[in-house]
Amino acid sequence: QVQLVESGGGLVQAGGSLRLSCAASGRTFSNINMGWFRQAPGKERQFVAAIRFNGFTTYYADSVKGRFTISRDNAKNTLYLQMNSLKPEDAAVYYCAQSRAYRATWSRTDDYDYWGQGTQVTVSS
In whole angstroms, what is the distance from residue 41 CA to residue 22 CA? Predict the structure, then answer.
């Protein structure tokens, strides 16, 4: 019964920044992972970043490492993705995801049980 709602997408110029948020509601779980994925037209959904329940252990795809920052506020049931130095290749629909229980892996779509509907990020040159 978990529901995830993304927001914060939009149109930015290359080199600009956006901050995405994901609001979670419904049943909550302990020892969960949360992550961000993205999907461009004609491409597979790909891993962007993930964060453990403690909020300190994070993982990033090589393509965004050093530019994106994932964080979470458990008190607000909210996940964030700060995106800096955006590139045209970052344009995609970004999805928030949550696992139901602890998992040792974090970078595959099968590692997550709940998904939001996505928010569009467009980067112009």
Answer: 22
The tens digit of pLDDT for each residue in 14-52 reads 999 999 999 998 876 556 889 999 999 999 999 999 998
CB 4 within 8 A of CB 98: yes
Sign of CA dihedral 105, 107, 109, 115: positive
CA gap 98, 111 in Å, rounded: 9
Q: What is the torsional sign of CA 83, 44, 39, 31?
A: negative
Which pLDDT tens digit goes with each residue over 47-69? 999 998 777 899 999 999 999 99
- Cα separation, 82 vs 30, in Å, equals 24
DSSP H or E segment with residue 70: strand 68-73
- CA dist., res. 4 & res. 85, Å (int): 26
Chain-centroid distance, C-alpha 85: 17
Distance from C-alpha of 123 to C-alpha of 29, rounded to nearest angstrom: 35
- Please give the Cα distance from 120 to 41 (Å, whole number): 11
| Residue 122 β-bridge partners | 11
